[in-house]
Amino acid sequence: MKKYLSLIILITLVTLCAFSTAAAELPFSLSGDFKTKYIYDLENENNLDQTELNLEIEKDFSYTGGFYLNLGLESYSEYLMNNKNRETELSIKEGYFDYYTENIDWRAGKQIFNWGSSYNIKPSNYFNPIDIGAINPLENREGINALQAKYYLNNVQHFTAVVGLREDINDFQQALKFTKRRWHGFDFSLSLFRGNELEKYNQNEYPKVTKAGFDITGDIGQKNIGIFSEVVYNDFKSPIFNDGLETVVGFDYKFENNLYLLGQYYYQKRLFENIDDSQIISLHAEKPFWQFHSWEANLLYDLNSELIVLRPKIIYSLTEAMEIEAGAVLKANDDQRSQLARANEELIYLGINSYF
To answer: For 130, which of 118, 137, 214, 248 could close a Cys bridge (C-beta 3.0–4.6 Å)?
Structure first.
């Protein structure tokens, strides 16, 4: 273990020095991060590791446009038939060009859309599937090739139109959204989507669906308690699926001691007659300590299966650009029928993150 961590630190320092020197001479901005983790799989009692190098390249051509590229190089170990194998993948997480006209901002390329106001589970996130290979899949999304046009009516209102193609689906994914900001202290959006679900159902098919959504976020009271909500109605093309609502309501608040709390309730009407409605409670808490360090905890509770997923994490800063991260994914009342069980593997990990 000591030899492994020493090698990680050496690689991190060399990477930081190399890219810091190169970035000063480039005609575009270059940033990124290097993360490596030792992982112990509690469910299968296996030792794993995961190393990621992300490079972000960005160039802004004043008022005419620009481009953004996020390259990811990942190396990880996995077990197949009790044999430990290593996989290495180079991918474009995001990569797009921007072009600005008088009232319309155009964006073309691979994109991750941050639609919706809720935390982790977002009914209004129509385009980007979760990254099932990540330690926390709900916080990581896969990009989609798309063309986006954002038309500004004024400083507080705009329309957004998106047409995209996912890698595993031949049909176009289409959406239109209207957004209004600073309406009595709230921001809200109305959206309409036509395409395919993000998850596979019915013999590994992505069901075709039309969605109509509404989301709102803002602060209430003198203490600035944040509230947010999303409501989406699903209209499936296939008669084997039940049409119905998918909704989230939640709040967040930051105390004077910098403790940040967030809670939300998620509901989805059952997709099939022989299953229950989906109901999930999410709680998130984080707080800095000793000025430069922080701890974080996430709790997911499936009200139907009574499955609990707990994600504690501690980040200890070594320098301004380097930190140690230790965390775990723990489950109680494990039930494979729950969608939380499929998206969360029980494990503990220790890693080093560096930024440049």
So the answer is: 137
Name residues whose C-beta falls within 8 Å of residue 323's C-beta, 6 or more positions apart in sequence. 315, 316, 317, 352, 353, 354
Residue 5, pLDDT > 80, answer no
How does strand 293-302 pair with strand 29-41? unpaired
Confidence of residue 112 (pLDDT cuts 50, 70, 90): very high
Task: Give the number of C-alpha atoms closer than 13 A to the C-alpha of residue 262, restricted to the C-beta side.
Answer: 20
Q: Band of the pLDDT at 20, cuts 50, 70, 90?
A: low
pLDDT recorded at residue 2 = 42
Which uninterrupted H or E stretch holds 263?
strand 260-268
Tell me if 356 sits within 8 A of 325, measured CB to CB. Answer: no
What is d(CA 214, CA 211) in angstroms, rounded to the nearest whole number? 10
Q: How many Cβ atoms from other residues are within 10 Å of residue 329's Cβ?
A: 22
Please state, in angstroms and rounded to a whole number, the distance separating the CA atoms of residues 355 and 213.
37
> Is 215 buried (19+), middle (13-18) or exposed (0-12) by CB count in 10 A?
buried
Residue the block writes with tokens 């969360």: 344
Q: Which residue has the tokens 């959006």?
A: 189
Question: What is the percentage of the chain residues whose pLDDT exceeds 90?
Answer: 70
CA proximity to 344, closest of 86, 100, 121, 180: 121
Does residue 327 contact residue 309 with C-beta atoms inside 8 Å? no
Contact, 157 vs 179, CB < 8 A? yes
Give pLDDT tens digits for 192-240. Answer: 999 999 988 866 789 999 999 999 999 998 888 999 999 999 999 989 8
For the chain, report the end-to-end CA distance as a whole number of angstroms. Answer: 26
